[in-house]
Amino acid sequence: MAEPVDAAAQSTTEDGFLGGRLRLRQPVTGHRAGHDAILLAASTRVRAGYRVVEFGTGVGAAGLAVASRGERIVPALVEIDPDLAALARDNVRLNELAAEVVCLDVTGPAEAFAAVGLGPDSADVVLMNPPFHDAARHRASPDPARQRAHLATATTLEAWVHAARRLLKSSGTLTLIWRADGLADVLAALDRGFGSVMVQAVHGQADKPAIRILVRATKGGRAPLMLFPSLLLNDSSSQPSAMAQAVLAGEQLLPLGQF
To answer: pTM, whole model, 2 decimals?
Structure first.
């Protein structure tokens, strides 16, 4: 049986993901999990027994979606906000999954990571959804937690990729989601230490530019860049596409989660 949570019930909602198989308690206001987390999870390739670490887990959506596949995956979920980390722990119990939640600053020193069991060259997979909105082009939310979760600084991407590179074993993989107009920044950040980069664009509407990019890269990889067909969330009649529905319901992985 799932244990009762100790988070204030009045300040949270319980929402269904993966066709209702994954239940997440999350704040009514502030940062809330959505499609991005599930797309990230569906782009993350894992094998039984892999050491998987999620950076910026929030309430645990992406990491727990990966853990729910039943492949003996016990992810470490890293979150800087203690309130969100507490909710992530609640969600681990709610879904009766195995996962470790760590309250830690992703941009912190290697010693801080090692102190919680995340030493260098120890992970097979890192997945992350860093804050990616450009502060110069987006009005900051009055909610401090939402602002921290969504707005990137000039060094956010580079710092998060650096932390992933340090944590990953040789040939370990990093999977991330970022805004589509920042593809050049992502490729530049990955240029030091990563290769075998795979990219899939995500379009909200059939006739609109991409809104997100999903990227997987291998530490020390040497294979050339691979571009996969774009994922269309809504078709030309503004209805959810069959592929998007299958992925969001947890019935199908995206190409980066398979190759």
So the answer is: 0.89
